Amino acid sequence: MYKKGRRAERFLVEKLWDLEYAAIRVPGSGRSYKRPHPDIVAGNGKKYLAFQVKSTSKERKYFNEKEIADLKEFCSVFGSLPVIAVKFSRSLRLFHPEDLTPTENGYKVDSSQGQTLEEFLHDNTASNRG
């Protein structure tokens, strides 16, 4: 499971570099650590992003409230836009936290929702809100 997530993170880092965003994976992401931290940070000198990255072979992905709260907290301090990226079997989809569908125990996203990376980066609403 961890290898699949790491592959998704590396895939996203490479795509971000191709689109002229410097990007790095954060060491220890997804592991217990006392401070909130994202999986990837990226920026192009104008826009700064922090990503929570997940991978799934299913059509839906669920998140607990703490995962999203931690990402938002990090972004608030760091000054970046929080981004949720999900690598579904056929596509990479990106979401703003407010685009997630609330559930009883957190949030969910569907593979038919969200934006491609290119759409997300070029979206005027994707300016830093952090």
Explain this structure.
This protein has three helices and eight strands; from the N terminus they run αββββαββββα. The chain is α+β, with helices and mostly antiparallel strands and 130 residues long. It has one domain: Trna Endonuclease, Chain: A, domain 1 (3-Layer(aba) Sandwich), CATH 3.40.1350.10. The strands form two sheets. A five-stranded mixed beta sheet has the order 1-2-3-5-6. A three-stranded antiparallel beta sheet has the order 4-8-7. A hairpin with a 4-residue loop joins β5 and β6. The protein is globular, with a radius of gyration of 13 Å. The N and C termini lie far apart (30 Å).
Short précis:
The protein is α+β, with helices and mostly antiparallel strands and about 130 residues long. The protein contains three helices and eight strands. Strand 5 and strand 6 (about 90-95) form a beta hairpin.
